[in-house]
DNA sequence: TGCGCCATGTCAGAAGTCTGACATAGAGTC
DNA sequence: GACTCTATGTCAGACTTCTGACATGGCGCA
């Protein structure tokens, strides 16, 4: 194949990208049989844990733009998985909720995704896992630090 | 905004996604003024560290499909940043290299991206950084473990 | 030699996401 | 009240990436 002279794999940034990419690939693999994408699943999981989130809040939680989430929400609403009754409108904000069908759909997906996360953490002690959480939170905070706040997504 | 009853932020998977997303956003922010996307930069950086990589190898290194990398490579070749001389062909494999212009283009981008990574790691000791590398490598290995190998990307 | 098998390069179309833009609603200020 | 500022929902178009497909080249094995 190719010469492995320089080792790119010592960069935390690259490893972070690699890990996130591997996680995403495995999630896609288990979600595909259910006819679901990762963002699709993320949206449902967010709504299950925090009912009534708005389009923009869902977008932030799934790390996409509110425009992308809007496209997805309209499809989910059309499929009867999510409902956004106009009566619930508060100002311009239109809260979304899972339908019964959405909850059923999420149940299988949630189990599948959880098994992927379990596999990812296999071989790590409880201390290592909380260490990983702490380090990731530190990186997130540092990256967001000198931020003007008005950024998409 | 919304009620913060259930805390989604305790999942390592979610934090991983959040950190990768934040890193990508910051990289996009510093690369945009240079007229470069993240994948664009990744491709150049890979070629700088390992000259002669093929299209498929670059794709794996940048975590995209070989089809996506092919689209990008054709654009980069057209822009004179990368060259793939047909004389270098080995079987079906066509090794790619940076042109002088590509090296210049990468120089600025590389510095910008490195500063983002430094900022991300701010406040972490050397031990914590190597701990982060170890944990991320562990997650990657576990995720790839029960893998048939033939997956895109 | 001939065969199956796998990886590669490439094209074409589909799907997902993003950028840009507009109108509107709420909060704060004068 | 009038104003500005910010956040939101939404539409339209462009871009990036993916999936599917095909032909080709190297490799191992009968």
From TrEMBL, chains A, B:
SMART domains: HTH_MARR
Pfam families: MarR_2
Database matches in InterPro entries: HTH_MarR-typ, MarR/SlyA-like, WH-like_DNA-bd_sf, WH_DNA-bd_sf
Gene3D superfamilies: Winged helix-like DNA-binding domain superfamily/Winged helix DNA-binding domain
Ranges for domain HTH marR-type: 9-141
Protein name, per record: MarR family transcriptional regulator
Organism listed in the record: Naasia aerilata
């Amino acid at each position: 194949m190719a010469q492995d002279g320089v080792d790119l794999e010592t960069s935390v940034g690259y490893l972070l990208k690699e890990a996130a990419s591997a996680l995403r690939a495995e999630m896609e693999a288990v979600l595909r049989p259910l006819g679901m994408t990762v963002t699709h699943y993320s949206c449902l999981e967010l709504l299950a844990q925090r009912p009534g989130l708005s389009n923009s809040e869902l977008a932030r939680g799934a790390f996409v733009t509110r425009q992308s989430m809007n496209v997805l929400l309209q499809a989910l609403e059309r499929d009867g998985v999510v409902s956004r009754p106009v009566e619930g409108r508060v100002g311009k904000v239109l809260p979304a909720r899972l339908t019964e069908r959405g909850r059923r759909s999420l149940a299988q997906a949630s189990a599948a995704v959880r098994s992927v996360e379990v596999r990812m953490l296999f071989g790590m002690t409880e201390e290592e896992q909380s260490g990983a959480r702490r380090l990731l939170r530190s990186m997130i905070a540092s990256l967001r630090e000198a931020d003007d706040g008005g950024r998409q997504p």
